[in-house]
C-alpha cells in the first residue's frame, strides 16, 4: 500500500518552501516544512492550535525569519525580496490588528490604497458595501467581526495574484461568514489568483478548496489534491469473525480505527479495490465504503489511529 503523499507533482509553483525549520526558544514550531502550492490553487492548510500554520505564513511574508531552509512565493525569495513580495500579496493576518485605530474606515482604505498601484477604488467601494463596512466609524471602535471584514477588503481590492488568509472568518457571525465566503468565491472567479488559506473551520472551505495540507506538530503529514483525497481516503465498514487478527498488510495505510464488537470502521488510504481485497482476504466482510467530507478527512488525518479528539 502507498504511504500518504507529502509532495505534489508538477513544477508550476506559486509557493514553495524547502526544509524550513523554526523554533521559539525550546519550542519547535516547524520541522523541515516542504510546502508547495500550485499556480491557481485554492490550498487549505489545516492543523490544531500550535501546529505551525501561522508561523509558516509569516515566514512566507518575511514577517519572521526561518532558522534554516528556504521559502519562495511568486518566484521571489521571501528573505531577500520581502517588500516586493508583500506588494503582490493580499494578506489577512490571524490577529485583527489595531495599528490605525484612530482612522475612520474610509480613511484606512484610502491610506492602504497609496501602497498599491493596482488598487481599484471602485472595487474597494463595492466590496465595502457588500460586506457592510461602517465607513464613518473609527477602526478602533469596530467589533471583531467588522475589523475582519475590513481586512478582507484590504486584501482583495488591489487584485493581487496571491492571497494568504489566516483564519479569515474568525470573529464573524454565520451570516457574515456566508457573505465573506461568497465575496471570496466571486473574487476568485472574476480575478483568478492563488489562495493559501489557514482555518479551523474546515467545512467552510469545502466549496472553494482544491488542495489540502495537514500540518501537525510542525510537520506536514499530508499534501494532496482534493480529487485524489476523495478517491483514496475512504471509510470502510466491515464485519469481522470472532478472534479476527486484523489485516496486517494494511497497517501502514489505516489512518483511523474504530471497533464496535465485531464491526470495524476503518479510514484507510489506498486504492479501493486493493483495500477491499486485503480486507476480504483477511476474513472480513466489507459492508459499506463511504467518502469523507473535507472536515472528516482533516480530523481523521490529524487524529490518527488512536482516534483522539482533535480540534481543527
What report would you give on this structure?
Helices cover 29% and strands 29% of the residues. The protein is α/β, with parallel strands linked by helices and 312 residues long. It has a six-stranded mixed sheet with strand order 7-8-9-4-10-11, with helices on both faces. It starts with 12 loop residues before the first strand and ends in a 9-residue tail after the last helix.
Categorize the overall geometry: elongated
Query: What is the number of independent domains?
Result: 2
The Rg value, from CA coordinates, equals 22 Å
Mean pLDDT equals: 91
- Derived from helix and strand composition plus strand pairing, the structural class reads alpha/beta
Sum this structure up briefly:
This protein is an alpha/beta fold. It has helices spanning 53-60, 82-86, 105-113, 121-130, 144-156, 174-190, 226-232, 272-281, 294-303; strands at 13-24, 27-33, 36-38, 42-46, 68-73, 76-77, 89-92, 162-166, 194-198, 211-216, 219-225, 233-239, 254-260, 263-269, 285-290.
Break the fold down into its secondary structure elements and pairings.
Blueprint: E1 13-24, E2 27-33, E3 36-38, E4 42-46, H1 53-60, E5 68-73, E6 76-77, H2 82-86, E7 89-92, H3 105-113, H4 121-130, H5 144-156, E8 162-166, H6 174-190, E9 194-198, E10 211-216, E11 219-225, H7 226-232, E12 233-239, E13 254-260, E14 263-269, H8 272-281, E15 285-290, H9 294-303
Parallel strand pairs: 4-9, 4-10, 7-8, 8-9
Antiparallel strand pairs: 1-2, 1-3, 1-5, 5-6, 10-11, 12-14, 12-15, 13-14
Helix pairs in contact: 5-6
Amino acid at each position: 500500500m502507498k504511504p500518504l503523499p507529502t509532495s505534489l507533482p508538477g513544477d508550476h509553483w506559486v509557493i514553495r518552501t524547502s526544509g524550513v525549520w523554526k523554533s521559539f526558544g525550546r519550542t519547535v514550531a516547524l520541522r523541515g516544512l516542504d510546502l508547495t502550492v500550485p499556480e491557481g490553487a485554492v490550498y487549505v492548510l489545516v492543523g490544531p492550535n500550535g501546529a505551525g500554520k501561522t508561523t509558516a505564513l509569516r515566514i512566507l511574508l518575511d514577517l519572521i525569519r526561518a532558522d534554516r531552509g528556504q521559502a519562495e512565493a511568486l518566484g521571489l525569495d521571501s528573505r531577500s525580496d520581502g517588500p516586493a513580495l508583500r506588494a503582490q500579496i493580499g494578506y489577512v493576518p490571524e490577529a485583527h490588528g489595531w495599528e490605525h485605530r484612530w482612522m475612520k474606515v474610509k480613511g484606512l482604505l484610502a491610506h492602504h490604497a497609496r501602497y498599491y498601484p493596482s488598487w481599484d477604488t471602485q472595487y474597494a467601494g463595492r466590496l465595502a458595501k457588500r460586506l457592510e463596512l461602517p465607513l464613518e466609524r473609527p477602526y478602533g471602535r469596530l467589533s471583531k467581526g467588522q475589523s475582519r471584514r475590513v481586512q478582507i477588503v484590504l486584501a482583495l481590492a488591489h487584485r493581487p495574484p496571491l492571497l494568504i488568509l489566516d483564519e479569515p472568518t474568525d470573529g464573524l457571525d454565520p451570516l457574515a461568514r456566508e457573505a465573506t465566503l461568497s465575496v471570496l468565491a466571486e473574487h476568485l472567479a472574476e480575478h483568478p489568483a492563488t489562495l493559501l488559506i489557514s482555518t479551523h473551520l474546515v467545512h467552510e472551505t469545502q466549496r472553494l478548496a482544491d488542495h489540502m495540507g495537514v500540518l501537525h506538530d510542525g510537520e506536514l503529514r499530508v499534501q494532496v489534491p482534493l480529487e485524489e483525497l476523495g478517491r483514496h481516503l475512504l471509510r470502510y465498514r466491515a464485519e469481522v469473525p470472532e478472534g479476527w487478527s486484523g489485516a496486517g498488510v494494511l497497517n501502514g495505510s489505516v489512518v483511523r480505527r474504530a471497533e464496535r464488537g465485531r464491526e470495524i470502521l476503518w479510514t484507510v488510504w489506498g486504492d479501493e479495490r486493493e483495500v477491499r481485497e486485503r480486507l476480504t482476504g483477511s476474513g472480513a466482510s466489507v459492508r459499506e465504503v463511504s467518502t469523507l467530507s473535507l472536515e472528516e478527512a482533516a480530523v481523521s488525518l490529524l487524529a490518527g489511529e488512536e482516534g483522539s479528539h482533535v480540534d481543527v
